[in-house]
Amino acid sequence: MITISQTLKAIDESSYEEVVSQCIERIKNNKLNTFITIAEESALEIAKNINSSKNHLQPLAGVPVAIKDNISTKGIQTTCASNILTGYVPPYDAHVIERLKEAGAIIVGKANMDEFAMGTSTETSHYGPALNPWNTDHVSGGSSGGSAATVAAGEVSVALGSDTGGSVRCPASFCGVVGLKPTYGIISRYGLISYANSLEQIGPIATNVKDMTLLFNVITGYDSRDSTSVQIEKDYTESLVNDVNGLIIGVPDEYFGEGTEPAVEKAVWDGVHTLEGLGASWKKVKMPHTRYALAAYYIIAMSEASSNLARFDGMRYGLRLTKDHDWHTTYSEIRAKGFGEEVKRRVLLGTYALSAGYMDKYYLKALKVRTLVKQDFDLALKDTDVLIAPTMPAPAFKLGEKISDPLTLYLADVNTVPINLAGVPSISLPCGFDNGLPIGLQIIGRHFDEETVLRVAYTFEQNTDFHTITPEVR
Ligand code: GLN
Questions:
Q1: Can you tell me the distance from the alpha carbon of 73 to that of 95, in angstroms, rounded to the nearest whole number?
Q2: pTM listed for this prediction
């Protein structure tokens, strides 16, 4: 794995162009299928000219970055890993891309993901799964699997993902890297192609908490083009303090349910005890509505998806069928060919949940459950500073193991989706290994209190060495 400071040092010792071209070579040689599009030409062009722009003075000057393929990049194909967007080249940049460019970062390509961010393993990608660098027989997690795997494999030092129900934290956990799902509203979603917009946020992924924070600092900030964007200006690097003295950690039993592997349970408790040894205290907290969160999440996410994906009609973006037909035939033909099985399943179920007669029973009920889940967090965090729980109940599963059984796959999200329902921030970072595969620990905080979450994560990292262990990429 490589850090931002190692990348900057390499630039000092060679050149912007050399560092970008080496990065692209690594991506091509690894065969982990981490990227859908490699932006070789534009990345090299920017690297060549960076000295003549003012960008070489910026904090991420020349640092190669991978972008999940559901974030719009001007001039670079953006597919959401779906056949329906094949060939779509956005005419504009997402807010986060504008910010990254201003900070001098160089976009080397678009990272592989589950189709329209629907999945937990990157196996629903039209382009095939991104492989786990720790063991290529295993999934990299999802839906931002390409973003986490490329960082874990040392192809790039930082990447962006998006997290609707765990898609930054799950692959971060499975690939042994650090990922943040920020508070809803902190990062503009302008230019993020929506899956379930009331739940999702763009999030940074890196090999360590400091790099992740540097990236986070760059992409946060108010944006009038996103009506949910919040006006907060903070320098989050100030939270990187190696001190948890006096902090209170809440541990919810509900997050160590039936499917939790013993190795995961042990590693997470060891993590809590590490922090206890550093001056924090812990207590059990009750989050009784956790058991309803998964069902509520899937109803809300699918309902929003059915509405958000209606725009893919074969007229405006991407894939086109040449045959001359009436509107209904064209619309159904393009969607039949353009969407994969999981996307179709969700559009159908979401449409059903929103239809007259069923809306009260499913969608509105799910919204009520969402309020109760949020109340659980408000109460649990009233007299604690953060909550700690396993990110995923088990380490990365094998490719093909769960993909044919959607319900089993959905169950893997049990510990990540409540956080999105509530809109609170959460970081996943490595806390152990089981059979050579990484285990992730999740630190959850109050709304807009990324500072405490970062402080606890930084302290944990400074006092453990899990982040220094690197996979041997085959
Ligand atoms: N696995 C979850 C889903 O399929 C979360 C996906 C995400 O966060 N984008 O909905």
A1: 10
A2: 0.97
Contact predicate 64/157, CB 8 Å:
yes
Of all atoms in ligand 1, which is nearest to the CA of residue 120? 1
Q: Give the pLDDT of residue 410.
A: 97
Please calculate the CA angle 91-92-95 and round it to the nearest 5 degrees.
165
Residues having CB within 6 Å of any atom of ligand 1:
117-120, 143, 163-167, 195, 301, 413
* Annotated catalytic residue 167: yes
Residue type for position 125? S
Phi, psi at 459, each rounded to 5°:
-65, -45
Cα 394 off chain centre by: 18
User: Which pLDDT value is given to residue 473?
Assistant: 74
Distance CA 115, CA 268 (A): 31
* Atom number of ligand 1 nearest to Cα 301: 10
Please name every residue paired with 38 in a beta bridge, in sequence order, or none if there are none. 109
DSSP state of 192: B
Q: Give the residue, by CA position, lying nearest to ligand 1 atom 5.
A: 165
CATH architecture of 4-244+390-468: Alpha-Beta Complex (3.90)
Other C-beta atoms lying within 10 Å of the C-beta of residue 132 = 32
Q: Which H helix or E strand runs over 431?
A: strand 426-434
Strands 64-68 and 106-111: parallel
pLDDT of residue 151: 98
Segments in the chain below pLDDT 70? 322, 474
Decide if 143 is catalytic. Answer: yes
User: C-alpha 432: how far from its chain's center?
Assistant: 20
Q: Which residues pair with 439 in a beta bridge?
A: 432
CB burial readout 272-309, b (16+ within 10 A) else e: bebbeebebebeebebebbebbbebbbbbbbbbbbbbb
- Residue 143: cis peptide before it, omega within 30 degrees of 0: yes
DSSP H or E stretch at residue 301: helix 290-308
- Separation between Cα atoms, residue 200 and residue 192, nearest integer Å: 9
What is the residue with the minimal CA distance to atom 10 of ligand 1? 118
Strand order in the sheet with 35-38: 35-38, 106-111, 64-68, 158-163, 201-206, 178-181, 426-434, 437-444, 386-390, 248-252, 281-285
Who contacts 348 (Cβ-Cβ below 8 Å, separation ≥6)? Answer: 306
Q: Cα separation of 204 and 159, whole Å?
A: 6
Phi, psi of 110 (to 5 degrees): -110, 120
d(CA 464, CA 271): 9
Catalytic residue among 162, 167, 188, 239: 167
Distance (Å, whole) CA 333 – CA 50: 45
The residue extents of the domains of the chain are: 4-244+390-468
Distance 345 CA to ligand 1 centre (A): 14
- Please give the distance, rounded to the nearest whole angstrom, from the Cα atom of residue 109 to the centre of ligand 1: 22
